[in-house]
Amino acid sequence: MIPLKKYILLVFFSVCFSINAQNTYKNWPDIIRKNDAVWFGTDQAKKIAENVLLYQRDIGGWPKNIQMQQELTPVQKKDLLALKKTTAETTTDNGATSQEMLFMSKMYAQIKDDRYRESFLKGLNYLFEAQYKNGGWPQFYPLKKGYYTHITYNDDSMINIMNIMEQVSEETDFYSIKPSKEIVEKAKKSFDKGIDCILKTQHKQNGVLTAWCAQHDEVTLAPANARAFELASLSGYESAKIVLLLMRIEKPSTQIITAVKSAQAWFEKTKITNLEEKRVLNDAGKIIDKKMIPTQNAAPLWARFMDLNTNEPFFCDRDGIKKKSLDEIGAERRNGYSWYSDAPKEVLKKYPAWAIKNAVKVSSAEKTDKKNNNFITVALDGSGDFTKIQDAINASPSFPYEKVTVFVKNGIYNEKVRIPEWNTHLSLIGESKENTIITFDDNFSRINLGRNSTFYTSTVLVEADDFLASNLTIKNASGDKGQAIALSVVSNRAKLVNCNILGNQDTLYLSGKNAKQYFKECYIEGTTDFIFGGATALFENCEIHSIKSSFITAASTPQNSAFGFVFKDCKLTGEPAATAVYLGRPWRIYAKTVYMNCDMGKHIRPEGWENWSKPEAEKNAFYAEYNCKGEGFQPTKRVFWSHQLQKKEAQEYTIENILKDSIANWYSK
Which of 540, 551, 538 is nearest to 607 (CA)? Predict the structure, then answer.
C-alpha cells in the first residue's frame, strides 16, 4: 500500500506531466515544429496522426492549408476516405507534404507504428515522381493548369523538398525513418538534379549572374509570372533560402562557388538601409495597415520583387500593374502580403566564413597567405594545418603587419585557448556558430588558487588587441558550480560577431586598461553576474539569456569612464526558472550599465537594479534605460536612483562615442 504522502506526490507529478504534454499551439505548422519530442507519444498526437493519415492521398502527397489537428466528423472522415484515391489538390505549396512528412517522422520516433513509416515513404516517393527531368518541381502534382506548372521557389516550395532530399541522401538523424539504400541513392540523384536546376535558373543581368525569380518556366527556365500581383522578378526572399542551401554543400563545384559569390554581391548591391516597416495593428493584433518609414541607418531589407533588368523594387495590386511604392496599392494587398524581407542578412552573415572555407577553390590566395603565415586552418579530422586551436595560435606571427586568420572547421574543441598579447590582429573564424564549439570545464573550486581563482577559469582568454571572432561557440562546461568564465577579454578593440557565449556564473569577463569591446548579434547566457568587468563594451542585437533568477551584469567601470556596458536593440530572455532577474548590480561603486531599445522579458524584476549592499553605489553608479519595451520594462517601478534617459541624452550613445578609439572605424570593418 502506498503511503498517503507519496500517493499525493505521484498524483501531483502525473498531473504536471499531463499538463505539460498538452499541445498549446493553434496552427498546424507550429504543432509540428514547436512541440517537445515527448508530446508526439501522447494520445492527443496519435489522434491527430489519424487525421494526417486520412488527408494523405494514395499518391503520397497532401493538400495545403489544412489544420490537421481539428476534430473530424464521421461525414468528413467518409469524404476523406473517398478522396484518398484521387489526386485532388496534392501540392508542396505553403509547406504542404514536407511538413506532414516531418510530423510522421516525429511520430515514428516515439511510436513505432508502421503506418507512420509507410506514410513518410509514400510522401518521399511522391516527391520523386513530381520532379521534372530538368531537376525542378512544380507547385502542384499531378500538374494543375496555369502557373502551377512552373518550377516553384515561391514560399520555399522547392527548397523544402531539397532539404528533405539532402537529409535523406546524407543519411542524417533528422528523420527517424531510415529508407533503404536504394531510396537513399535515389534521393542523392534527385538532390543533384535539383542543384543543377538551381544553377541553370540563376538569372543573368547583362551577362552577370544575380539571383532567382519566385517561379521559372518549366521548359525555358526563364523567370515567369504567377498571380496577377506576382510578376516575373528577382526575389529577395526566395533567393536567400536558395543561397543558404548552396552554401551548405561540402566541396562545392566551381559553378556553385560562382553562383554563391554572385548572389552575395547582388544582395549587397540591392539591400535597402533607409526604410523601416511600420505595422499598424487593431485591438485583436491584426495588421490593418503597413507603412514604409524613411529611416537613417535602418537594418537592411530587401524587396520581394525587383525588376529583372534594373533591380528596382516594385509592387502590384490584383490588376497586375507595377507600382513604385507600397502605398500606391490597395489595403487588401498592401497588408495581406510580405513585400519586404530581411532573409538575405543570414547569407551576408555566413558568407565570410564560407568564403574562407572555400578560398582554395576560388583562388590561389590561400597558398600565398600560408607562405606568409596569415591563413591557418584548424580541423579535428586532420584536414587542416593543425588539429588544435592553441597550436594554430602558437604558430601565428607576433605583432604582424597584416591580419592573421585562424579558420576553425566544425567540431568540438575541448581545450583552453589563449590569444596572448603578441598575437595582435588575429581573427578566429568558425565554420558555423552552431557546430564550431570551443569548450572546457574549469571552475573556481577546480582551479583552487585562492580568492582570485575565477580569473584562471576561462575557456578562451583574449589578451591581444585588434581581435575578431565570429561564427563559433565558446562554452564553459563546468555547469552551475560557481564562478566559471567562458570568455575573458582583457584587450582593446575586440569584436565578436554571431557567436554563442555559454556558461553559468561569470560567463563573460570584460576588462583591460581603457579597453573598448564590441559584441554584435551574439547569444550570451548565464546565471549570476554573467556579464562582468570594467571594460567599455557595446552589445548590439544580442540575446541575453538568464538561466535562473539572479543578476545579468556586474560592472566595475572605472570612475572616469564615460561609458560602461551598453546594450542596444538587445533581447532579454530567460528560462522558466528565471522569474526574478536584476538588470545589474555594482561590482564596484562607479558601475555604468545602460539598456537602450531593448525587449525585456517578464523575468526582469520591476525594481530593475540592486545595490549589492553598497549604499554609496546609489550615488556613484549610473544605471539607465531608454525606449525599451516588453513585460519586464516597468520604468515607474525602478529603484529611485536609476535613470530613464531623455532623447537628447540617448543621442550621445552612438557607436562612435562609445567605442571611440585611436584606430578610426576599426569596429565598423
Answer: 551
